[in-house]
Each structure stands twice: as C-alpha cells, then as structure tokens.
Amino acid sequence: PEDSQREIKAALELAAARVSQELPGVTLEFAMSRAFVIVYDAKRQKGLKKHTDGRQEGATLLLLIPKPQRDFVGGGTRFFPGGILESSFDAKPGLGSTIVFPSDTLQHEGLPIKRGRRLLVCVFATKKQISNAPQDDTEAAANNDPSSETASPVVAAAADPPDIAQLRGKA
Questions:
Q1: Residue 4: what pLDDT?
Q2: CA 50 to CA 132: how far, in whole Å?
Q3: Fewest C-beta in 10 Å: which of 32, 51, 85, 104?
C-alpha cells in the first residue's frame, strides 16, 4: 500500500507540474491526506450528475486506475465549458492518465458505466500565484480584462502510468 500511495502521489505531482508549465505564473499544490477514491459501479452508482466541485481558486485532479474496456465499459467525464457556441465534450482518459480542470467554474459529470467498476483517485489542488513569474502581453491583457474569467478548458496530462497491478493489489 505504501508503494501504491507513492506512485499515485508521483503521478498526481507530475500532472500538477505539467499544468504549472502550461500556466506561467501558477503552481498547483495539494495534500495527499485529502485525496479520496471515486467508485463507479455498473450495479450501484453508475455515474454522477452535472455539478461543479465548488473549490474556490482551485483545480481538481483525477487519476484513472483501472483499464478501460478491460475493467469497465462506458464512463468518462463530460465537461460543460459554457458560452453560447461551446458544446459539451467528453474526456475518456486511459489507464494512469490524469485529468486536471478548474474546480470552481467548470461544470462536469461522471458518465455512466455499463459494466465493471471505474476507480478514480481525486484530489483538490490550490492554485498559487508565483509573484516573480514573467508575463507576456496576452497574459497581461487577460489579467486586466474582467471578461477573461471564464472556465478554462480541460488539461489532460497523461502521466506515466503507475504500476497499476500493484495499485490494485495484484503484484
């Protein structure tokens, strides 16, 4: 179990680092003590209705543990970015992939699974501004434009998959 926890933490840290590279001036911080597992089961809770996570100034990190099509069929996360011209879109990550998205503004739902069990490790991260990070002209304009505070698109960071057999207790 300790090795599994280290591998999960490493995968989430890698995803947070990749997001931080994509968003200059921002770093994501999280505590593994606040991580939890979401279980979708074809015989019980198949999915989750549309919602936001409600975490102000934060991001949600989801790490997929089982293998799609082998351990479960169906599922995924549907995002609703908002806006008149933007339609919903589905993210169906592979084994060991991490999805990162804004917790407070981006509506999403867990799509129902049809067979098996889908497990996700979820942790909420806090966005921290790095005060000495350089800004380019578009970032500076966006920071002064109140209309730029819409939901960011989903960032899918495919982390190097942890040893999933070990995570599932089969090693």
A1: 80
A2: 37
A3: 85
